[in-house]
Amino acid sequence: MTSPFEALLPSTERALLHRVAVAQSEGRAPSFVGAVARDGKMVWSGARSCVDGHDPDADTQYRIGSLTKVFTAVLVMRLRDEGLLDLNDPLEKHLSGTGVGEVTIAQLLGHSAGLAAEAPGPWWERTPGTVRPELADVLGEEAFRHPVGRHFHYSNPGYTLLGSLVETVRGVSWEEALRGEILEPLGLTRTSVQPVAPHAGGWAVHPWADVMLPEPSEDLGLMAPAGQLWSTAEDLCRFAGFLAQGDDRVLGAASVAEMRTPAVAPGAGDKEGGYGLGVQLLRWDDRMLVGHTGSLPGFVACLWVSVEDGIAAVTLANATSGPSMAAVAGELVQIVAEAEPRFPEPWRPLPEAEVDRELLELTGPWYWGTQVFGLRLGPDRSVTLEPLRGPGRRATFRALPEGGWVGLNGYYLGETLRAVRRSDGSVSHLDLGSFVFTREPYEQSDAVPGGVDEAGWRGL
To answer: Which of 20, 220, 239, 439 is most buried, with most CB under 10 Å away?
Structure first.
């Protein structure tokens, strides 16, 4: 039986189609496709076209440009998870002779390697890859624009290097690795390096007149890992589910979550939320969106996922510029999230096996100096420490096999939390990276570093 929550409400579908129609009209795009997925399954798609009666659909291929970078990043993360490289390795360790080998793999993934944004020579997106047959042709004589590791500076040549890295370590072409390691396992049958019918043609629309011009569609050669792919709204909705949840056949949930974690801060003047390991991050009102935008002559695209809402949106258009793809995709997510908010899972008590009396003893209020925090017990013996009044540092901690916990987020990411006990077994205090949390604020009997004034608390 079909769940009533698998299909969107008619009013929601109308709002989505209206947004797509406005985007196609105001953006002056020959065609525009939008799609929405919930929990990895496409639940709506709609399209508008300048040709009456011939709208594309969710199975029509469009070129997705820099969305390709997410796929390339996944291939690199797979190599890391298999122990074939470390993200902190210098490129030179695995791919020699580039002249930029001091940059690390992580810096390339997060665009902090300091490399130029584009390849030298003729406009690489509108010329064949044969113009740049070697990596030296992609990097040029002056590859760097910034000190290594100091700034976020988007770099297409950087992802060319990552594609070549994949080929060197795997011993197969980037395309072969992509097909066997991502596309086939995830069932992305309509994502390909070259266009496969039905596909849209790329167009440039005149900025001052309602006329258009066909754009060339070039094979990018060595730069393919930065922007070559063609895909469909339906395939990208399926890929969005992978970006939210992971898939052990490709990349586990922990590694995908690592990709979604900011690797570098946004550049000066950027309004985005930063960049992870191969994915863009965007703060859209009160929700964080992860994914990527893409463009090549004749095409613009965007994929955003709100992991918290379980909602993804895809936008595809066949125009060199015009439609605001990132904004429209963000609004599609917002429309569904606000009109049909996700039902929370029913509250359930912890399994009896996870109820530890010693852990229960640690829950409740703790004081760091005079600031009060609350410690809450979570699943799998995890704990959350958060301020109970005013601003402060909140973090969740994973239990360690040897005892104690390690921070999973925020200021305390990677820091150790432990309960310090007295000789009689009772809890004296919590130690968090040398910060002491006590049951009472500055009690004489507590282990407060520096001691407590003997006169105690006093009035004016």
So the answer is: 239
